[in-house]
Input
Amino acid sequence: MYDGKQVVRVETQYKKDDLYNIGKEMSDRKGTGNYEETRTKYNVEYISLTQPNLYQEVKTTLKKRKIKYLDRPNTNLLNGVVFTSSPEFFQILGMKFKDSGRTYHTGDKKGQAVMIPVIKSKEDIPNAVTHFFDYCMEFLKSYVGKENILLAQIHYDEDTPHLQAYFIPVVNKVKKKCFVKDKNGNVIKEKVKKKDGTTSTVSKLLRDNKGKIIYDEIEGNFLNNDQFWKDKGDKLSFHQMQNDFNKFITEKGFNLYRGDIGANKENQTKLDYDIAEKKAELEELNKEKENTLKIIENSKNGLKNIENNDSNKKLLNPVKRKFGGYKEEDVFKIIKYTRGLEHKVIILSTDNTNKNIEINKLTEENKTFKNNKELLKRNEIIKEQKSTIQDQKEEISKLSELVDILNNNIESLKSKLETEVNKWKNLFQKMCKAIDKVLKRDKPKERLEDYEDIADAINHGYYGKNNKNKDDFEIER
Output
């Protein structure tokens, strides 16, 4: 027999815009919960903020620890987790509860009273309850890393005591897609057809012989929500976390029911739960409104029958007396009751309208949050454009490197050529001096052609033949 049901809820998609409301709820206790101010002072903080707000806490932590991440509005910066159980579990641990006057509208306890803790002093919180949450915190530290938890509190001021914590999903390895390159090392492009029928040019992914994308592993310090949960078991990560926690907490002596292992149940967020509860409450209000309208209609019909009955017309005169089994004061009570019911219908209608507005708002938020196809489509287009731009940048970078190499080679060649030219120039000057010395010239010739003629004469065998006395060694034509 189990003492209670294990409850571990995880939310993985908190972005920059969500952090203000989370911080407000945790610090000021303002949000969607049923808070009781008299119990707020008994809440416990395991880990507190060191910065003015949660967003600055995240940014400061990432900067201080030099964690790399994509600084974009849709980046998942934070994860949230809640550890708790049913009121029955905490009652077994020694905590007292009372009827709140409200009822559950959905779930296994539909129609049952909502029980809330009775806490008037610290002594009303049993040690067993404190130990339970201490162990929950111990599990969380080992599971996500103590250094990654930015905020953690036990809340005793809501309907059910629970540990609520927030952490950054940090990994030390990420996988980067590999692309097909040509012999020069440039990424090859290919045209792909999208779902809407249009085509776009993208970098060609490198795949193995089974068609699977090949990745490179890069080590470092990264904030990467997808990789964090892939490392924890990918699609079975939440399932595995539930198993690991149940094994851990059971070994500590707490007998919690894990739930239907292997059941294909979607993890319900707090927003989903609020919507389901309010829809159920609206349905009950609508039924109450219909029943009230029926009572009003029956009351009106009864009064109409009395008024149309000639024998009962004197019933409404000032004389108080019985007639036909009715008293005048009873009739007035019926009229008053009917008007009261009409007023109740107006109130119910107003409540229903407000509930509808609230449900529609929450539903739209949920749709936007979970299934915003236009946003996804836009993000996909932006992603493709950024990928193309990145590829172009890579190509430009490679071309720039090639230009730098060529420039360096040109400078090197120019230097070598200049050295070679100087070498031959010096040699030529030496040769000219040698020729002048052999010919016993006092002064060197000013014209280059003079030395060129001597060279030609020697090369063609004319030098020394019938022109020993000549100063000019031009080749005879």
In short: The mean pLDDT is 79. Residues 373-438 form the longest helix (66 residues). The radius of gyration is 44 Å.
